Amino acid sequence: MKAAVFGAGSWGTTFSMVLADAGTDVVLWARRPEIAASINHRHRNPWYQKGIRLPERVRATTDPQEAMAGADFVVLALPAQHLRENLQNWVALAPPDVVYVSLIKGIELQTAKRMSEVICEVADVPPERVAVVTGPNLAREIAERQPSASVVACTDDETARRLQAACQTGYFRPYTNPDVIGCELAGAVKNVIAVAVGIADGLRFGNNSRASLITRGLAETARLGVALGADPLTFSGLAGLGDLVATCCSPLSRNHGVGERLGRGMSVAAALAATTTTAEGVASCRPIQELARKHSVEMPIVDVVVAVLYEGMPPRDAVGVLMNRSAKPERHPWPNERHSADSDAQPDRVAESVWRFVRERRIGP
């Protein structure tokens, strides 16, 4: 099999290595000629995976047509907000019946669509020809060939198993899952929760705070996922809990790093400027909040992350907003369940109360 990988950043480069180690021939498209030249002549991408030697099965090009030629899989490893524009330029070059594979963990800002939805729309292909690779995929650890498990999600089982075979190695173990909605949504929302955990770490809170945010963040993710038609069991698996824990607890996490810098007192602009690669949670938090409001799903952690990043809320005040919410049972009814008689009559609208709370803290007794 042959794969064309579009995006020579840290994860695109690493997944190219995984595919090649599994026996798949790979052409890696790079925007920058110096990256392509380094990969072809030295088998290295020192800009994104310093010290890692890539297999000889990986070669690189700056020509998208050359990358596409004869590909069985077109793997997309771009920032979420750049996918639509780039794919529009490339889709006419794709071989017939090619399978599109998304490595992207984000939600489109303008449309609040998942990446597989964007691919289906732009490439005009059915969902059976779009797969998603997700899970605890910290690129540097995988580039070092440390053992890792992942998920290949596709509505078509045969397609999922083909891609599974194309990327299974002695250190990278992919499982299949038909729940594309749940897998993609979990991968996008965990980035926002990681920003929140990073803020708590930057404020020097301890493991209780981190565990609480991870657990309640998982609850928020599952509520939204079920409202969108996902299987709730997905969120207890690699794409859900596994990816969430890895991203919230690792110093390799870009989203956690942004949050940690905010918690230490850096401005949003400075925290983002110190991030050399894309932190998807920063852009995706707003369309995720939009989806939650559209489907009447409470996501208070997402709400305060949006408030910190885009509405000027101080990180320490965001903690107060979360801790002073109305008391409620741990288990919310799923969106398709009827609220019991003793449940809250009104949902807790965190976003609507953010600034009222801040004003009360500043001028109240």
Automatic annotation (TrEMBL):
<dbReference type="Pfam" id="PF07479">
    <property type="entry name" value="NAD_Gly3P_dh_C"/>
</dbReference>
<dbReference type="InterPro" id="IPR036291">
    <property type="entry name" value="NAD(P)-bd_dom_sf"/>
</dbReference>
<feature type="binding site">
    <location>
        <begin position="254"/>
        <end position="255"/>
    </location>
    <ligand>
        <name>substrate</name>
    </ligand>
</feature>
<keyword id="KW-0547">Nucleotide-binding</keyword>
<comment type="function">
    <text>Catalyzes the reduction of the glycolytic intermediate dihydroxyacetone phosphate (DHAP) to sn-glycerol 3-phosphate (G3P), the key precursor for phospholipid synthesis.</text>
</comment>
<dbReference type="InterPro" id="IPR008927">
    <property type="entry name" value="6-PGluconate_DH-like_C_sf"/>
</dbReference>
<feature type="binding site">
    <location>
        <position position="11"/>
    </location>
    <ligand>
        <name>NADPH</name>
    </ligand>
</feature>
<feature type="region of interest" description="Disordered">
    <location>
        <begin position="328"/>
        <end position="349"/>
    </location>
</feature>
<feature type="binding site">
    <location>
        <position position="254"/>
    </location>
    <ligand>
        <name>sn-glycerol 3-phosphate</name>
    </ligand>
</feature>
<keyword id="KW-1208">Phospholipid metabolism</keyword>
<dbReference type="GO" id="GO:0046167">
    <property type="term" value="P:glycerol-3-phosphate biosynthetic process"/>
</dbReference>
<dbReference type="InterPro" id="IPR006168">
    <property type="entry name" value="G3P_DH_NAD-dep"/>
</dbReference>
<feature type="binding site">
    <location>
        <position position="32"/>
    </location>
    <ligand>
        <name>NADPH</name>
    </ligand>
</feature>
<dbReference type="GO" id="GO:0141152">
    <property type="term" value="F:glycerol-3-phosphate dehydrogenase (NAD+) activity"/>
</dbReference>
<feature type="binding site">
    <location>
        <position position="135"/>
    </location>
    <ligand>
        <name>sn-glycerol 3-phosphate</name>
    </ligand>
</feature>
<feature type="binding site">
    <location>
        <position position="243"/>
    </location>
    <ligand>
        <name>sn-glycerol 3-phosphate</name>
    </ligand>
</feature>
<dbReference type="InterPro" id="IPR011128">
    <property type="entry name" value="G3P_DH_NAD-dep_N"/>
</dbReference>
<dbReference type="GO" id="GO:0006650">
    <property type="term" value="P:glycerophospholipid metabolic process"/>
</dbReference>
<feature type="binding site">
    <location>
        <position position="105"/>
    </location>
    <ligand>
        <name>substrate</name>
    </ligand>
</feature>
<feature type="binding site">
    <location>
        <position position="280"/>
    </location>
    <ligand>
        <name>NADPH</name>
    </ligand>
</feature>
<keyword id="KW-0443">Lipid metabolism</keyword>
<feature type="binding site">
    <location>
        <position position="31"/>
    </location>
    <ligand>
        <name>NADPH</name>
    </ligand>
</feature>
<feature type="binding site">
    <location>
        <position position="253"/>
    </location>
    <ligand>
        <name>sn-glycerol 3-phosphate</name>
    </ligand>
</feature>
<keyword id="KW-0963">Cytoplasm</keyword>
<feature type="domain" description="Glycerol-3-phosphate dehydrogenase NAD-dependent C-terminal">
    <location>
        <begin position="179"/>
        <end position="319"/>
    </location>
</feature>
<feature type="active site" description="Proton acceptor">
    <location>
        <position position="190"/>
    </location>
</feature>
<comment type="similarity">
    <text>Belongs to the NAD-dependent glycerol-3-phosphate dehydrogenase family.</text>
</comment>
<keyword id="KW-0520">NAD</keyword>
<feature type="binding site">
    <location>
        <position position="105"/>
    </location>
    <ligand>
        <name>sn-glycerol 3-phosphate</name>
    </ligand>
</feature>
<feature type="binding site">
    <location>
        <position position="190"/>
    </location>
    <ligand>
        <name>sn-glycerol 3-phosphate</name>
    </ligand>
</feature>
<feature type="binding site">
    <location>
        <begin position="7"/>
        <end position="12"/>
    </location>
    <ligand>
        <name>NAD(+)</name>
    </ligand>
</feature>
<keyword id="KW-0594">Phospholipid biosynthesis</keyword>
<keyword id="KW-0560">Oxidoreductase</keyword>
<feature type="binding site">
    <location>
        <position position="255"/>
    </location>
    <ligand>
        <name>sn-glycerol 3-phosphate</name>
    </ligand>
</feature>
<feature type="binding site">
    <location>
        <position position="105"/>
    </location>
    <ligand>
        <name>NADPH</name>
    </ligand>
</feature>
<dbReference type="InterPro" id="IPR013328">
    <property type="entry name" value="6PGD_dom2"/>
</dbReference>
<feature type="binding site">
    <location>
        <position position="10"/>
    </location>
    <ligand>
        <name>NADPH</name>
    </ligand>
</feature>
<dbReference type="GO" id="GO:0008654">
    <property type="term" value="P:phospholipid biosynthetic process"/>
</dbReference>
<dbReference type="InterPro" id="IPR006109">
    <property type="entry name" value="G3P_DH_NAD-dep_C"/>
</dbReference>
<comment type="pathway">
    <text>Membrane lipid metabolism; glycerophospholipid metabolism.</text>
</comment>
<dbReference type="Pfam" id="PF01210">
    <property type="entry name" value="NAD_Gly3P_dh_N"/>
</dbReference>
<dbReference type="GO" id="GO:0005829">
    <property type="term" value="C:cytosol"/>
</dbReference>
